[in-house]
Amino acid sequence: MAHLPSIPPLFPVLLVNFIGMLGYSILMPFLVFLVRKFGGNEFAYGLLGATYPAFQMIGAPILGRWSDIYGRRIILLISQIGTLLAWILFIGALYLPRFTLFELPSATDTPFLLTLPLLCLFLARALDGLTGGNVSVANAYLSDISNHENRQKTLGAWPCRAAWVYIG
């Protein structure tokens, strides 16, 4: 029987981090066009851009605590399922009718509109941020699998690996 090559222990963690960073960064250049298409203004764009990191700030400590209790792998899986559900909601928002839920006057030339697709975009980014604490869980996993001699090298190279998304 042929021996299959083993997967390096860092590969699943790198894949999870790559998917998370790609999901966040690939959207940013197009977000302004989607916000405009769905009736939002500059303020809505700023709020939508801040939604993911704000909810990640809430979700990361919770997922980190759960990863200590239930294990790293299950929490990384939950974070990936949350990202998948958020992307399904995000894609679903593209096909919703532009129904205005409420409108606020603005100092700019366009009022602040909250439309049904824009609300779905906010919910999708919030869900993705809430379950996007995989970076903190991945850091804990890296600390678990590395020994004292290579821990600095492993954790120091981690931000460089995350930059793959922006460079390549």
Question: What report would you give on this structure?
Answer:
With 168 residues, this protein is mainly alpha-helical. It has one domain (11-167): Growth Hormone, Chain: A. Helices cover 71% and strands 5% of the residues. The protein contains eight helices and two strands. The protein has helices at residues 11-25, 28-37, 42-70, 72-93, 116-130, 134-145, 151-162, 164-167, and strands at 100-104, 112-115. A two-stranded antiparallel sheet has the order 1-2. Helix 1 runs parallel beside helix 4 and helix 3 packs parallel to helix 5 (116-130). The chain is elongated, with a radius of gyration of 19 Å.
Short structural summary:
With 168 residues, this protein is mainly alpha-helical. It contains 8 helices and 2 strands. The chain has a single domain (11-167), classed as MFS general substrate transporter like domains (Growth Hormone, Chain: A).
